[in-house]
Amino acid sequence: MPHALEIGRLTAEEVDALDTLYRTTTDRRERTRAHIVLLAGEQGMTAPAIAKIVRETGQTVHNWFKRYVAEGRERLRDRPMLGAPGKITKEYAEQLETVARRRPRSMGQPYSLWTLQRLADFMAEETGIRVSYETVRRTLAAAEIMLSRPHQTITSPDPEYLVKKAIEEARDH
What we know:
By secondary structure, the chain is mostly helical. The chain is built from 8 helices and no strands.
């Protein structure tokens, strides 16, 4: 027969802290972990019984219980995930903002509007740092810069074009 998790009885302060965490956190995983400890400490339930309630494996329940015993309530939170350091430096971000605010043709490019991919390519050539267009988008969004869609305008070399256009629009209304 499975034995109860060896947590012993929780103190009133521990129950209050875990209950507050359970009721106030917006992190579903943290809430489940607090629930695991509360069920073990208040009800004396076994890992398999708790696993059925919280829809986890018995091993997962047991692991979280051990972490709580070893490190306390703070350990119920996820640890920050460390990945590779970002490629974007402050100088790169500043240069990207400057470039994005200028017309591509003024930067020697054969097109009239920037796209995220064009900016990523241009910056890779200029700085040697290759980033995705999504990284470019996030960097520009942090600086409150949004690339707009191109707008089609019809023009004519005819010097009378604006007058003719106004007459045509007046007829349509």
